[in-house]
Design brief:
With about 300 residues, the chain is of the alpha/beta class. It contains eleven helices and eight strands.
Length: about 300
């Protein structure tokens, strides 16, 4: 299979995702999370170095609940910016922070030379099943955080999108309106929550385009390599785990190699369908591992 033409390449810390996407190629990106231990950080950097040769458009680093991993997140994105060829995106949430505290964190991000931020409301500190309560002196919605970032500097701002609608949204049309509002507030691109049916992604894009939101919406991909883990994450995120996929995986649940093989096969097929249907690229939730992503890249024919 021929390689996907137009893969975007990082061009140093000063480059924004907005500029990279405007170049017209497909975006391929990876997401990492800041580990809680030094040993986990060593493992993370091993994955980063193994994925760096794939020349992703950007890589993002998540932000722990209530800012619990703020220092590690900032340290990791700064190291990525200064010690690798990668373009980093720092996640930032509204959870548990006043506007003053958020301004300080945004200042620290800017001081680290980071120009790309993913602006998120964040999950309730007590868990996804708890009611959302903003900090009394903070921000209530992601679109407010987008505006704050725009006020404070020349940031390229990304936001989250939900193909099956956010679990707190009454319906998919309302959820699409929320995404359009974030775009109107100044978002440059969106990355979706992981999902398993490409039709949900294309439906979301159609709804937001009808609302006048034309920012790139990058589908998020979560390769299934562990059945229990992915089912747990699907419950927490509100994503639907397809019964036919669950049946295939449970049929080989006692064979980790077979589970992994099925998961990568399904993810690769979905990636092909998304790219063929016009998706601007793919964003891989790596879980700080590199092998599944590298195998999917090889199957798709994507080459640096």
């Amino acid at each position: 299979m021929p390689g996907w033409e137009g893969v975007l390449y990082p061009a140093g810390v000063s480059t924004t995702v907005r500029e990279l996407l405007a170049a017209g190629g497909r975006s391929f990106s990876f997401e990492f999370f800041p580990p809680k231990t030094d040993a986990g950080e060593v493992e993370l950097w091993q994955a980063i170095r193994q994925l760096e040769p794939l020349a992703p458009t950007f890589v993002s680093v998540t932000y722990g609940a209530g800012g619990s991993t703020r220092d590690r997140t900032l340290r990791i994105v700064e190291r990525i910016a200064t010690e690798t060829t990668l373009t980093p995106v720092a996640h930032l949430t509204c959870v548990g922070a006043s506007r003053f505290e958020l301004r300080n964190v945004i200042g620290a991000i800017a001081d680290a030379g980071i120009r790309n931020v993913l602006a998120l409301r964040g999950d309730p500190p007590g868990g996804a099943d708890q009611a959302w309560e903003p900090h009394p002196e903070g921000l209530a919605f992601a679109e407010d955080l987008v505006r704050l970032l725009r006020e404070l500097g020349d940031f390229c701002v990304g936001v989250a999108a939900f193909p099956e609608a956010h679990r707190e949204s009454p319906d998919r049309d309302t959820d699409a309106k929320y995404l359009a509002q974030k775009c109107a507030a100044g978002a440059d691109f969106a990355i979706t929550q992981f999902f398993f049916d490409p039709a949900d992604y294309f439906s979301l894009v159609g709804r937001v385009r009808a609302l006048g939101c034309d920012v790139p919406v990058i589908p998020g991909i979560m390769p299934v390599t562990n059945v229990a883990q992915i089912e747990r994450m699907a419950v927490l995120s509100g994503a639907t785990f397809p019964p036919d996929l669950a049946e295939r995986l449970h049929a080989v649940a006692d064979d980790p190699i077979a589970v992994r093989r099925v998961g990568i096969e399904v993810a690769t097929s979905m990636c092909r369908e998304l790219l063929s249907g016009g998706a601007p690229g793919l964003h891989f939730y790596t879980l700080n591992r590199s092998s599944a992503t590298r195998e999917i890249y090889a199957a798709l024919g994507v080459a640096p």
